[in-house]
From TrEMBL:
This is Uncharacterized protein. It comes from the Eukaryota. Residues 1-22 are annotated as: Disordered. Residues 1-10 have a biased composition (Polar residues).
Amino acid sequence: MENLEGNQHSGAPPVEGVGGGGTSYGWSDGGCQLPASFSGVIDPSRIPSSDLVHVWHMPSTENVGNQGIPQQFEHISLLAARNERESVQISLRQKVSWGGLGAVRIQCSDLCSSSGDRMVVGKSLTLRQVLPVLGVPDALTPLDLPVSQINLLPGETSSVWLSVNVPIEQPCGQYEGVICITAVASDTESSGKSLTKSQKYKLHHEINDCLDVVQTLQDKPHEEVVERLKVATSTLRRVLMSPTFSEFIACPEDLMDEDVHTNISIQLKLSVTVWDFTIPQTPSLPAVFGISETVIEDRFCLKHGSPDWYDALSRHFNWLLQYRISPFFCRWGDGMRIFAYTCPWPADHPKSDEYYSNPRLAAYAVPCVPSLLSDETAKNYFKKEIDILKSKAHWKKAYFYLWDEPLNADHFRSINDLSSELRLYAPDARVLTTYYRGPGNASDSQSSFEAFVKVPNYLRPHTQIFCTRR
């Protein structure tokens, strides 16, 4: 580690090139003294990775762009309660180029406490690569665990998003693990990358079965059985321990032995203190997020109401819940009228309680289109739905989202009319309205900001939850 900390930031950091690279970002060619052994072609397997790669970490609240400036190398220390997620960014940047498109291999261990408790990599600890969207670091694409590999472009900073998800039943204490970062040639990508994870798992399972069969041979002469077992066992174990199956090996610490022995990897220690209290499963401040059902249908080529359609909605629902977001699905009608619902099943369906009673759900949208209730059958059906939901303990989570961002006085009047109609069925209903401006054609003369400020006056008492983005 002395070698790492002595070389990580000596002088001004270069941005690219074997000689320290360009001056376009404020660093001069003379600001970096490289070892004489760096002349010629660089073999990352023979040089400490700390001489090739800048590694530092940044808070999850920071935007680290591709020109992020390297910071001091420090180990990571996080504090978290049970049932809490804490994240941090690990940023990487080439000090010098090796083979054009350099790559780094990232290996993670489980987080272990002195009492033997453990947070498992891949479940409690996850990694995602931060990728830009329209030039802004935004997308988080999952990385394989416990071993993954990413490419580093010369002169650009790349970041990895590390999240620690503390299970609700996790014992409190101090947990420690290691993240090994190793510079590798970009053409050393594991051959297993051509296989999907499910394919690798299937192959792994088949080889294990083969090993079991060979080890239980009984019909052959003793000498032949012994010899065949030696050959088969040696071959199969060598295959199972190859990088192709690294993510299925039970003890990820073993994967790091080679790096530890050669002292080439950068070893970034991760320490997590788990406090002796638990974050409630139900958020105290609801955060709702809408997903267009037509986007899901178009994106996954699904027919509305098909089994696959219900499955896709369920997957989106549960995926957002893990981030303490209460989702709803929606489609738009005329004039930005919106049909919003959290559960696609009717209130008397068993799935309904599964959705609405989920302790991670803080609020749910009740499907409602009062203006479409033109006949008694539809009105009776809607009344039945409301009566069922009102009889449940989760009714206190319910709200109605009737209109998306009204623009003029007619829109505001429509919201109030819809809300009044709704209260014939549910007098205690809570109506949510989103807005970013006041009515554009209001009769009284006022500025746009004055109209915006007065929106609650236009909507009360018909709206109880106001959501604005201005």
